[in-house]
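Lab meeting tomorrow. Please check the following:
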Amino acid sequence: MQNAQINLHCPSCGHANLEVDRFCQQCQTPLLKRYLWAVGISPSPSVELLGNRFAFKTGQIWLDTYPSLTCPYVLDLPAQAQPYLRLFSYRLHIPQIFTIVSPPPPCSEILLLERPPLAQVDWGDHDQDSVVTAPYVPALPFLQAWGEAGLIRQLNWLWQVVQLWQPLQLEGVTSSLLQPELLRVEGPILRLLQLAWDGSEPPGLSQLGQLWLRWLPDAHFFLKPHLAELGDKLLTRAIQTPEEVLQTLEHWLAIATSGREPELPVLNYQISLATLSDQGMSRKRNEDACYPPSGSVTAPAPEGLTIVCDGVGGHAGGDVAANLAISVLESHRESISAPGLNSDDVVSVLENAIFEANDRISERNDTENRQERQRMGTTLVLAWGQRHQVYIAHVGDSRAYWITRHGCYQVTLDDDVASREVRLGYALYQDALDHPLSGSLIQALGMGDSRHLSPTVQRFILDEDCVFLLCSDGLSDYDRVEECWQTEILPLLSGGTDLPQACQRLIELANLKNGHDNVTVGLMHCQISLGGTPEGSYPLAPTLTERATLQITPEPPPPKPNRFSWKHFPLLGLLLLLLGWLLYGQPQQYWDLLIALLPQQLRPQAQPDPPPAVSPPPSPVMPSAAVAPPSPPPTGSPSPSVAVSPAVDTVFEVSEVITFWSKPIAQPGQGQPLKVGSIVQMQPTPAPPTGWISLKVCSAAPGNSTQMTTSASKLPLGQTGWIQAEQQVHLRSLPSTAVSNCQEDNKNQGDSN
């Protein structure tokens, strides 16, 4: 049965209020409402109040009626509690144990999980006499949300499932990811209602593939064929590791967000930043530091970097350490944004930057002979936004929160004694907080060698507008962020406030409600809209592993060149007959016409001609031009591999010895050298053979007609012939007046003949 009347006791005055009240009706203190998820109890419990404190609501949902009181210390932790504790680092996806209660027999111990994935029911109008029995219900089931989600969100959820696979497998609770009734979504975040034990036969990736194949009908049209292939490979064990699955999903995600896929919309990603730091109400100096500098507000851009550092309290020089860390990390901005980096590369760059900052502070400590508690240090929390993804890195207890329209989520885990006790499975978090040293840091920058430093770097995929809040403990202590996010940060997503105003309000609230420390905030507002510019570089080519997991459609082979076939045989026979007739002294123009009519594949190919034999030089002092070593072509001459067609009738002077042919066929012994200084003219030729240029000899340099040893020993003026196109670089064009001179020389030569 449901509890019809629940009294919610004020943490300040103890007054009993109704569940629907937001503030205490007596002292106006905000009321904390802690709804818990019960594990190990039937849906219809026989009791309405556990431990005289927890009131039954509906199903497995219970309400803490004394939220300000601590719970009895749990000495003996049951075995079923251990996976929750050791997975404390994954509390974004897995609810954690608030306490363990023992109901009357025959019920066994009950785990009460805090911050389960619950959705708030709209209260509507109410008065003090109304009774609201179920203000919260389990969040949206995964299968119900899957068919309504877009491509990037579907990929994001699959990516999160695989990210959780190995950690849950180590704890023997992988079955939690294979039971759809346990999978819930809160916007972009995949969450579990509770953990499920694997049993004697732990599931493998083949079961995951089988599950994903059942999701195919409602998959996005772009994802559907790829997911079908991936599911088959998982089912047949062609893929056997989560890393291979992640690489495949990363490849699809890169394509979906690149803006280069014609069938997918182009998305515009914009990131805006604002920072603000304050000394606080009780500190003599501000040992916090931030980047961009305090008071900065940046214009929207596809990338953004913000950092918050808190000089370790009580350590002399905390402000020096914080500012030194900011300086080192900011200097790596270009390395982080270098083109071509994949997600693993970005994580590596961030880790190396943190190690360098740690070493710089440690060296400063060593130089100044600082020992133990005299050593200066700093915490760090960093957010690097890059289009559709945000990387969060942290060391110490400065925190990062992810605020969406669906909730506020702490995404960093404090590096302190309390968190360590939970991760080791020694205590519940609420019990660990009672430890005298619970807030003592187990690591910070500058306290030792980087070999003993373990920074945490996480990556989050963005598929809707959101805000990341980075802050020092001057704000996060006493759950102040959880109290104020709805009124001070959430309006950023609807335009109800702006970044500078939100920063100022958070500083004021920290000083008003905490006030015990410096306070620094950094806000990163991520916005996504349609109609952006495609990404500058296309996603990286698939790795060898990706090629094994992706069905990559090969590019069509280039068209094969046209080859001679038997249909050319009649034409070839006719041409051979004509060739035999033309070789017996027919005019040059008939030969040219025949060459032009030949198909490209049948035209004779030019062969290099051996240098012509020359007579010994008359003088041992001055070698003949025919055997002189060639000089390099003049600067600016066209490359031999790039033919430049000169204008018809252009007159040239030969600048280097070239070979002149009567026909565009390089036959040994048939070429004649044209010496330096000879004048030639470009001739019009219909369809000239490839690689040949037709020239007419206007004047020959001395020795051209006397040094020939071939049967064609004379080179008469006015003769038309051919040179190979690569010899064009040895022709130097002459002024236009040389054209008429060349024509006159030819006329005179003809008259003399």
Remarks:
- The CA atoms of residues 619 and 625 lie 12 Å apart.
- The chain is about 25% helix and 20% strand.
- The mean pLDDT is 81.
